[in-house]
Structure formats: structure tokens, C-alpha cells
């Protein structure tokens, strides 16, 4: 990764404070040579970090040089907050052991996560959608269990992805074509953002990319081993997660479409609580698509190890629950059923009846509160003050990308003017970034993360390139993620004092803007940078815009992680 420092004024600091740009190149394996011989890259075990920082008279933070060792090979696929080694400590109830459970501070690893033996630089997009190196994701289980459903197949040194799935063994494109017939908005730019719960190897999300739709593919770390890792290795947006006891890390009224293709989520159990979470994150007028049991039970029940009576009962219960939550059956054909979340306030009014189930949520929990927030057994009804949040009220893609969303006014200091200024600012910055990292816009950079976005301006400035951006909004920052979704981009809430919900080596470029200025009082820089090292691919890049106070300290830690860094001026050059 390469780091850049650029001078600009930082809000809240003295007028002369300088913001530098650190551009870091992740050269853990120098020259692109990936060695399996341990001695070629293991360094002395110098990891003491006690009292390593001090403030110098120069007014900058200084850090003593430290070299981080390489973790043992058993940590090659380490996901700290969804670690199978710790599952036994947590409850089986609703599979909550698969949710985020981060290790305490004293158990944090202070080492560099190594790649698997034989790791190669990932195959470039768009070829990567159809194939990846076996050694990069060396899991045979999913291949053996799912080969008859055409999820993937192993040939020689590669996995190939034929585009199959449990409900579309003959190919995902034909499946989405049928869905497109049922939902015309897929074709005309009405639908832009989607979420796929229980995503398999993300073939559905991969197909939708060609149709101008960005999908967050969601799956837990489970006995399918590495669904999310396969997705990201292919260059398709994905994140580790499960609908269980906690809300998903997304704001309310965000996604235009949600999808489940035989994803094994028990939708009608626990009072329909999983459906209530889908309802919360879908915007009014958005669509929920279900294929698999109990849809088309009349013709499919024999293959489901059940009885036609049980499946009929399940379907009727599902339809009843959805109706009670203000969904309506929108369309149905063969194995696919589509429901639409109602925009009309009259249905939600009925939920105020004390005898109704599920009830309407009170105002005790913010609809957008979604970081370690328990799912509540109630319906989050659309706020009537919003006139332009419903799907039919938004501009179609790509016009919505640069249109100031209505919800920007909910942000402190937010306004149409502030949004437009931010949008313009990032267009200027991106021209500068392109000069600093010529790889932007080429097939060398596919998976990108903006680690502390405001309105998604960085991602918006990149939309013409063959890449996608995961926009992250700090759980401690202003709630701007609804604005990101309203403009047709994707993202998640996260606290960078903890590990991100992804596998190692899954991003090509990380971008960080003033993070340490804003959050160093909570999150120790060393752990944030080690996490960046975990999720960046070898030969990846990191752009760190930061005030001069933190620059030397960041560069010292980065050097200890074997990054090659250089300082650069910002686009303002003063």
C-alpha cells in the first residue's frame, strides 16, 4: 500500500495545521514474490509496544520503531470477530455464536496475517468473476458439497464459477432475467442497491453488476467455509454477517431490493423477527425476493424432504406475516415470489392498534441504530416527514448519484449546499489521486474501501472506473450512511477499534481521511494499521490523509509492517 500526506487545514486544529497525505504500498512480499519458506519473510520477534509513543517538542506524535512478526500459518484466514476458535463460548440460540464477538484487548494479535502457502496475486477483473486461484481460497468442502448445484468447480490450480446456485443450477443469468420480468425497475435504473442474505459465492450479486446494481452479499462464517472470501476474491462486494439477534450494520430504509435464494433463514420462526429486520433495511417501495421453500411448493415439495401440507402451511404463514408487516405480494412466477414494502402510511397506522402483531415500534430505539443493537420484535415504520426516501421518489440511477438526498438535512451541518460542496471537492481530489496512484482505474484495483466516509464523495468520484467501494461510517461519527445509500452507493457501520467483518487479503485500496485526528483518543493507531494490513492484499495501496501531528507515527508503524510509504502534498499544495 502506498500512503500519501497532503497539506490541508483540519477542522478543530490551529489554522496552520497541515494535513499530509501518506501513500503506502503493501510490499509484504517484495517484488510480488510470495515465498512459502518461512525464513524469507519472518523477522525478529520485536513486538513490545508499551510506551512506544510520545509527543515531541516539535508538536508531532513520535513512535519508537517496532517490527511486527508474522502470525503462524494457522491464522492465514483469521477473522478476529468471527473466529471459529471462540464459537463455543457463545449461545446456539438463533445461531448467535456466528455474530460478531471480538476478542478482548489482551487477546489481540500483534502480528501480520500470512497468506496461504502458494498464494498468488488475484486474477484481475472481469476475468476474476469466473475464476480464482485455488491456493488463494484453499477450501475443498464447498466444492464437494455444492458441485452438483454448479456453485463452483475445481480444475487444476483454479476454481471456476459457472454461475449456478441452489435455485438456479442452470445459471444465474436466466434466473435474474426472470426476476427482471417480474420487477421492471431492475432494468431502468430504479433499483440500484441490493442485499443478498445467505449469498453462496455471490453469483447473484455478480450478475447484477452488469445490470448497474450494487449488491452487498452477506453470509456468516459457517460450515460453507469461505462464501464471503470467494465473493471478494472474485471482485464482488461482500461482508461477513448474519441475521440473528443483532440488527445488521445498515441504516433503515436503505436497500432498494433484498434477496434470499434458499438461504435457509427460518423466516416464519421467532414471530417473524428476521423478516422485521429485512423490513427495516428496505426502503419504502423496495422489493423482497424469495426463491426456494415454500415458494412453488405445489411442484417442489417432494424434493424438500417434507409434505405438501407442511409447505402450504409455511407459505400461508409467510404470506400472513408479510401482510401484517405492510408488505404486499407484487409478483410471482415459477420459483420466484416478490413482495413490495408499502409506502402508504395507512397500513402502518393500523399497527398502532394495541392488538396488532407485530406492533409498530415506539421511538425508544433509533431506526438507524445498528451497531450491536438488538433486533426488536416490532415494525420500524417509515417516517412521514421524508417525502423523497421511497423508491419511487428517488431519481433513477445514475442521476441519483449527484442529487442531494433529503436525509442530508438530518446530519449536523448537513444541507444541499454542503453535500454539493463535498461532491465537488472529491472530484478535485480524485484527479490528484490519479496522479499519485496511476493504478486507479486499471485492473490492478477492484475492491476498494473508504474507511471513514462522510457522504460517499470518494466513491462517487470513482464510479466510472471498473471497481466498487465499501463506504464505512464510524459508529461514533455523525450518521451519514443513509445519505450514502440514498445516492445509490453501498456501505456499513463499523467501529475501527475492532476488526472489520471480512477475511484477510480482500481489498486492493484503503482510503482514510482524518481518522486519527477524529478517533485516536479511542482507537490505538497500531491496531487500526494492523487491521488494515490484515485486509489489504499484497501489492495493495492505502491512502491516508492526516494532520502533520500523526504523520511520522503512522509512517513508523507502517514501516514495521513492511509497507513502503511516502509523503505527498495534498491537491492544495501549501
Automatic annotation (TrEMBL):
- What InterPro entries does the database record attribute to this sequence? Put_SAM_MeTrfase, SAM-dependent_MTases_sf
Q: Which UniProt keywords apply?
A: Glycoprotein, Membrane, Methyltransferase, Signal-anchor, Transferase, Transmembrane, Transmembrane helix
Q: Does the keyword Methyltransferase apply?
A: yes
Q: Where in the cell is it found?
A: Endomembrane system; Membrane
Top EC class of this enzyme: transferase
Q: Which GO terms describe its cellular component?
A: endomembrane system; membrane
GO MF, one example: methyltransferase activity
Q: How does it sit in the membrane?
A: Single-pass type II membrane protein
Gene Ontology BP terms? methylation
- Give the principal location in a single coarse category: membrane
- What EC number is given for this enzyme? 2.1.1.-
Which one Pfam family would you cite for this protein?
Methyltransf_29
Metal-binding as a keyword of this entry, yes or no, is: no
From which domain of life does this come? Eukaryota
Q: Which residues cross the membrane?
A: 16-34
| UniProt family annotation | Belongs to the methyltransferase superfamily.
What name has this protein been given in UniProt?
Methyltransferase
Amino acid at each position: 500500500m502506498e500512503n500519501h500526506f497532503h497539506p490541508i487545514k483540519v477542522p478543530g486544529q490551529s489554522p496552520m495545521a497541515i494535513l499530509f497525505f501518506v501513500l503506502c504500498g503493501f510490499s509484504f512480499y517484495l517484488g510480488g514474490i510470495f515465498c512459502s519458506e518461512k525464513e524469507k519473510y519472518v523477522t525478529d520477534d520485536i513486538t513490545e509496544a508499551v510506551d512506544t509513543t510520545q509527543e515531541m517538542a516539535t508538536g508531532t506524535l513520535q513512535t519508537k520503531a517496532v517490527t511486527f512478526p508474522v502470525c503462524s500459518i494457522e491464522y492465514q484466514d483469521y477473522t478476529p470477530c468471527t473466529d471459529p476458535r471462540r464459537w463455543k463460548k457463545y449461545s446456539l440460540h438463533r445461531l448467535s455464536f456466528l455474530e460478531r464477538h471480538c476478542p478482548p484487548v489482551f487477546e489481540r494479535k500483534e502480528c501480520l496475517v500470512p497468506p496461504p502457502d502458494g498464494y498468488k496475486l488475484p486474477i484481475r477483473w472481469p476475468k476474476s468473476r469466473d475464476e480464482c486461484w485455488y491456493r488463494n481460497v484453499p477450501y475443498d468442502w464447498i466444492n464437494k458439497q455444492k458441485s452438483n448445484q454448479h456453485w463452483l468447480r475445481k480444475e487444476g490450480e483454479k476454481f471456476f464459477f459457472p454461475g449456478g446456485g441452489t435455485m438456479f443450477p442452470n445459471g444465474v443469468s436466466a434466473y435474474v432475467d426472470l426476476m427482471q420480468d417480474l420487477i421492471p425497475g431492475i432494468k431502468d435504473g430504479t433499483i440500484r442497491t441490493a442485499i443478498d442474505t445467505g449469498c453462496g459465492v455471490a453469483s447473484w450479486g455478480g450478475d447484477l453488476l452488469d445490470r448497474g446494481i450494487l449488491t452487498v452479499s452477506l453470509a456468516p462464517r459457517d460450515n460453507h467455509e469461505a462464501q464471503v472470501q470467494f465473493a471478494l476474491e472474485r471482485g464482488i462486494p461482500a461482508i461477513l454477517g448474519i441475521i440473528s439477534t443483532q440488527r445488521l450494520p445498515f441504516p433503515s430504509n436503505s436497500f432498494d431490493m433484498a434477496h434470499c435464494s434458499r438461504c435457509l433463514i427460518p423466516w416464519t420462526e421467532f414471530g417473524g423477527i428476521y423478516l422485521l429486520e429485512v423490513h427495516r433495511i428496505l426502503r419504502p417501495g423496495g422489493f423482497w425476493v424469495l426463491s426456494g421453500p415454500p415458494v412453488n411448493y405445489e411442484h417442489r415439495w417432494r424434493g424438500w424432504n417434507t409434505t405438501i401440507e407442511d409447505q402450504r402451511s409455511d407459505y400461508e404463514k409467510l404470506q400472513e406475516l408479510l401482510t401484517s408487516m405492510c408488505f404486499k405480494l407484487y409478483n410471482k412466477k415459477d420459483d420466484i415470489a416478490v413482495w413490495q414494502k408499502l409506502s402508504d402510511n395507512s397500513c402502518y397506522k393500523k399497527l398502532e392498534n394495541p392488538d396488532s402483531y407485530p406492533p409498530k415500534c415506539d421511538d425508544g430505539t433509533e431506526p438507524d441504530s445498528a451497531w450491536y443493537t438488538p433486533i426488536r420484535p416490532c415494525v420500524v415504520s417509515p417516517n412521514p416527514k421524508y417525502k423523497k426516501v421511497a423508491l419511487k421518489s428517488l431519481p433513477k440511477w445514475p442521476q441519483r448519484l449527484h442529487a442531494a438526498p433529503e436525509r442530508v438535512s438530518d446530519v449536523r451541518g448537513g444541507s444541499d449546499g454542503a453535500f454539493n460542496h463535498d461532491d465537488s471537492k472529491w472530484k478535485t481530489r480524485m484527479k490528484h489521486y490519479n496522479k499519485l496512484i496511476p493504478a486507479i482505474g486499471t485492473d490492478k484495483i477492484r475492491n476498494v474501501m473508504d474507511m471513514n466516509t462522510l457522504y460517499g464523495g470518494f466513491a462517487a468520484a470513482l464510479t466510472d472506473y471498473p471497481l466498487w467501494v465499501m463506504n464505512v461510517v464510524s459508529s461514533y461519527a455523525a450518521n451519514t450512511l443513509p445519505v450514502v445509500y440514498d445516492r445509490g452507493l453501498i456501505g456499513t457501520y463499523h467501529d475501527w477499534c475492532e476488526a472489520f467483518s471480512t477475511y484477510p487479503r480482500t481489498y486492493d485500496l484503503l482510503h482514510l481521511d482524518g481518522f486519527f485526528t477524529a478517533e485516536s483518543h479511542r482507537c490505538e493507531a497500531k491496531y487500526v494499521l494492523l487491521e488494515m494490513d490484515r485486509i489489504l492484499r499484497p501489492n495493495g495501496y492505502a491512502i491516508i490523509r492526516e494532520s502533520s501531528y500523526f504523520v511520522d507515527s503512522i509512517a513508523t508503524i507502517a514501516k514495521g509492517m513492511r509497507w513502503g510509504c511516502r509523503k505527498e502534498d495534498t491537491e492544495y499544495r501549501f
